[in-house]
Amino acid sequence: MSEKPTKHTKVLIIGSGPAGYTAAVYAARAMLKPMLVAGMQPGGQLTITTDVENYPGFADVIQGPWLMEQMREQAKAVGTDLVEDHIQSVNLKSKPFEAIGDGGQKYTADSIIISTGAQARWLNIESEQKFKGFGVSACATCDGFFFKDKTVAVVGGGNAAVEEAMFLTKFASKVQLIHRRDELRAEKLLQKKLMENEKIEIIWDSVVEEVIGDEEPKNVKGLKIKNVKNNETSELKIDGLFIAIGHDPATSLFKDQLEMDSTGYLITKSDSTETNIPGVYAAGDVKDKIYRQAVTAAGMGCMAALEAEKYLAAN
């Protein structure tokens, strides 16, 4: 089998979501002819989000997948080379930088913008995986609507879990927050709101052992939970389960090459998207664990492209 010719670009964008597509739009308009490798989930987390009501510029509710399709088309229209591939290794020590795709395709680049995003963390119990999409979800804003006047449970104790629980009270008749400790990690103001909400019940010191449900048609009926202090198990009757125990950034690719924090998020310079390697930039959820919004990711994508342009002009 003959080797595929190496593809070279001034700007290689790894990952596609609001950050990657926005970086592509800016880089293409700067005549840098960027190449964007879309990855395993083109469009990122927004493609599993339905209603988007907080993206500026749209008075009516829009759909996440539609927004990503529009960004993709826009990036293409201004001159981005969109590649359907998944980068499996990178060498940031070589000049130009190197990346290898799944099928062995080699890419070289004068600068790289990383926008590989993050994924929700799961409990990783078999029954949870079995009912994923059939009553088990990691996104209340995506799926809360389906549980109108039903009982749901949320697992977690941080800001995300509390926010999901509060959000779900718009639809569900009852929300049970299951937390493995006896106090929440969430901000005090959020905790206060949570405690004041009559629809929410907190189940302390407990973990989910099993999701119970029907096989045909597949749906969730309840949970088996265990109290970690006295090891007693009990069953809860619920119609839906939401996991809110955090996110993992997709950064394993850059281990031992780029600086990251203890949880794996890429570290960039202050007021910049530049990583510890000049010419390599990080934008979106891959470096942002605070805001994690489409609009902030897009903003960082713009910053990364402008910084890459400046870097290329100087070198």
Kindly summarize this structure in a few lines.
It is built from seven helices and 19 strands. With 315 residues, it is of the alpha/beta class.
Task: Characterise the protein shown here.
It contains seven helices and 19 strands. 41% of the residues are buried. With 315 residues, the protein is of the alpha/beta class. Strands 1, 2, 5, 6, 7, 8 and 19 form a seven-stranded mixed β-sheet that branches. Strands 10-17-11-12-13 form a five-stranded parallel β-sheet. Helix 1 links the parallel strand 1 and strand 2. Helix 5 packs parallel to helix 6. 24% of the residues lie in helices and 28% in strands.
Top keywords for this entry?
315 residues, alpha/beta, 7-stranded mixed sheet, 5-stranded parallel sheet
Biggest sheet features: 7 strands, mixed
Briefly note the structural class of the backbone: alpha/beta
- The rounded distance between the terminal residues' Cα atoms is 37 Å
How many β-strand stretches?
19
Fraction of helical residues: 10-25%
Helix-strand sequence: EHEEEHEEEEEHEHEHEHEEEEEEEH
Low-confidence stretches are none
Shape type: elongated
